Structures are given as C-alpha cells and as structure tokens.
Amino acid sequence: WWKELGLAKELKFARDQPVKWYIWSMACLTDPKLSEERVELTKPISFIYLIDDIFDVYGTLDELILFTEAVNRWEIGDIDHLPDYMKICFKALHDMTNEISSKVYQKHGWNPLHSLRKTWGSLCNAFLVEAKWFKSGHLPKAEDYLKNGIVSSGVNVVMVHIFFLLGQGITKQSVELLNETPAIISSAAAILRLWDDLGSAEDENQDGHDGSYIRCYLNEHQGCSIEDAQEITITLISEEWKRLNKELVSPNLFPAAFTNASLNLARM
C-alpha cells in the first residue's frame, strides 16, 4: 500500500518509516484475529507523521493555513490553490479516508466519514496553532501547550479509527461521546505527548521546531532547573495514568477491545 501510494517519492522531506508506523498498530491491536484492522490502522498513522512533517519541517505558514482550511472543508475539487506537494498529500488523505469509511460501512453498517473528517480537521488545527506559536517565536504557557499537544499527538485520530475499524458498540450515543475526545483518549494522548517531550525532536533527526512541555514550562517559570521541570512532567504523566486507569475500570460506552487499545497505546 505504502509503495503504491508513492508519497515517499513525492514528499522527499517526510519520514519514510512504514515498519515503525505498523508497530503502533501492532501494539494497540494485539488480538491475532485483527490482522486486517492493523493494516488499515497503519494507513492513518502514516498520514499523522506525513502531515506532522509538512507542518514542522517544510510548509510556510501561509501554505499551512491553506492546507488546514482545505482539510476542514474536505472538498477535493477545492484544492487548486494549494502547492503541488500539498495537493498530492490532501488527495491521498481524502481517498484513504473515503476507502476506510466505505469498508467500515460495508462491514459494520455505519458510515464514519463525519467523525474521521472531524478528527483530521482537529489534528491540522492543532498543528497550525503550534506552527504559529513557534514561527512567531512566542512560547505558550505550559498548560496551553499541553492542551493543544493532546490533540497534536495524533492519538485522537488513531483511537477514532480504531473504534470504527473494530466495529463494536457503534451507537449514536457512543459516536457522540467519541467525537468529544473522552478521557479514555485524552489521558493516553497526554501520556504520549509528555513522554515524547521528555525525549526531544532531535531523536527524529528533524530540523522542525514543534516545542516541548519542558521548554514551555522553563520559559514560564524563570529560574526553574531542567531537572525540576522533568520531575514535574513525570508527576503529570503519573496523574494521567491514574485518570486512564480509572476510565479502564469504570463502566463506559466503549467495548473492551477499544479501551484495551487505549491502554496499549499509552504503554507503547
């Protein structure tokens, strides 16, 4: 699928790591029977990384604004004003999302297109907020960074796709709750974002500037040592684990396979 898509050739600046992307799927969905779902899930995961690289490494702010507007409108005939590399990416994203929606509808009788479009729009909106912060040289407060970073982690995109690919417990009520990013998703996202920020963007050999919780915290609390900021970050991770564990043992609208995927994602 990845080779046929041809995006690695077209978007030379972006990461080309399909095995790594598949490992996320494998970690989230451990049931041997879910092979097809793991393959399908790897597709949106690859686009999270691709779009992240467009925002962090390559796109100008004006281009990023246009791309975000295009994703929020979701009109394939409305992308003529985008630069070529963004046209290619948006068309591939659009086609993949429609294909997954069609498969879910055929298998489970629910068309998830509205939810999938919404989560891609939210992701690009969050990426754009970060791009504006860091291109202006303005670091946000640590709390504001984390609130946005929970969305820009891409966890919501992954979990929304998992929910529909599993096809269990799909009701109007559960879909509405899913669309509001419940704690079962946001806590896993906070854990991922904060652990990621304890490392650094240098791990990815990128030139991008997408900030970190620790950097924002140090900027906000002048005189605080980096060790203290790291301790505070680890304490926050611990709090999010408590919140996630509470969700896992409390009655909720989501099937066990979905809540287990959230737990596995946080573990990974």
UniProtKB/TrEMBL annotation:
This is (3S,6E)-nerolidol synthase 1-like. InterPro entries: Isoprenoid_synthase_dom_sf, Terpene_cyclase-like_1_C, Terpene_synthase-like, Terpene_synthase_metal-bd. The gene is LOC110747962. Pfam families: Terpene_synth_C. Pathway: Secondary metabolite biosynthesis; terpenoid biosynthesis. Keywords: Lyase, Magnesium, Metal-binding. One of its GO terms (biological process) is terpenoid biosynthetic process. GO terms for molecular function: magnesium ion binding; terpene synthase activity. Its cofactor is Mg(2+); Mn(2+). Gene3D superfamilies: Farnesyl Diphosphate Synthase. Residues 3-242 form the Terpene synthase metal-binding domain.
